[in-house]
């Protein structure tokens, strides 16, 4: 039996943290109190305008590859989960592959499932590895959401941040990923979207993120609870067997409500939203890498990674680290 196991993790945040008070100083009509009370966010990192997703992905990937103890040339599959790609094409994964100096490599592609992107990408890479077609995958979540935020819309611009996280997933005789579940319901797309496109050189529609915050909140809490239960059951385990819940970091109240629904105490939930804001597809691997590097996440522990995002999409991956 071939399993897919996380061999190493890495992450990267651009620049210095930008606090809620910094946003006020930049002229946004908000307050630290409003943002912190409703979302738990205290700060986020925002990339300079010329910094791209593939650059952030590269920095995170170098760290993950080093942690895995392998070389870029050992990677035979790259999946980058992003909603803020460098270009329409080539894919951010292809640009990342070039930055890593890999030539004549295996498959590379981007995966677009918004904030569920990393869970989708990890589950997809697992299928490639378990089928025997690939040996070592680089799975990345990389975002520069600052590009698609309407900085005149205080209801959304304060919520997001930029960053990247990566894992190296490799074939192993020992169990790694134990269960995966991916879902979508496109009928909910209007509650969170960037409803624009470039057509003949002109932006058609709206190039900025639009959200019905309260509808997103309700939907997120419901499906995060359901999909977490689904993967735990699939693996023949109980929620009590999970050492760490690592959810997509949308906001603290969603994390708390999800933990409560699942009966998982907050001490077992990795929360980075206060420092990172919502980094969409990057949030789960950023949180995972932080917890690996500060020693909370240990080899042999069971981790439940789960996300929800635009589409709407949602999914979870249960793994033994
Ligand atoms: N600072 C100060 N006041 C603000 C701000 C701000 N940044 N943004 C909105 N307000 C005001 C509004 O103008 C409104 O004022 P009014 O009552 O005078 O009209 C008031 O605050 C309440 O606005 P609501 O939008 O109703 O605020 P709500 O309590 O719903 O909180 C929030 C908004 C935080 C977005 C909440 O709905 C939420 O947490 N939703 C979850 C959505 C989320 O986390 N999305 C992340 C992306 S999706 C994902 O990752 C899955």
Automatic annotation (TrEMBL):
Residue ranges constituting the Beta-ketoacyl-[acyl-carrier-protein] synthase III C-terminal domain according to the UniProt record: 233-320
Species annotation: Zoogloea oleivorans
Keywords carried by this UniProt record: Acyltransferase, Cytoplasm, Fatty acid biosynthesis, Fatty acid metabolism, Lipid biosynthesis, Lipid metabolism, Multifunctional enzyme, Transferase
Active site per database record: 115, 248, 278
UniProt catalytic activity: malonyl-[ACP] + acetyl-CoA + H(+) = 3-oxobutanoyl-[ACP] + CO2 + CoA
GO MF assignments: 3-oxoacyl-[acyl-carrier-protein] synthase activity; beta-ketoacyl-acyl-carrier-protein synthase III activity
Compartment(s): Cytoplasm
Protein name from the UniProt record: Beta-ketoacyl-[acyl-carrier-protein] synthase III
Record region (ACP-binding): 249-253
Pathway: Lipid metabolism; fatty acid biosynthesis
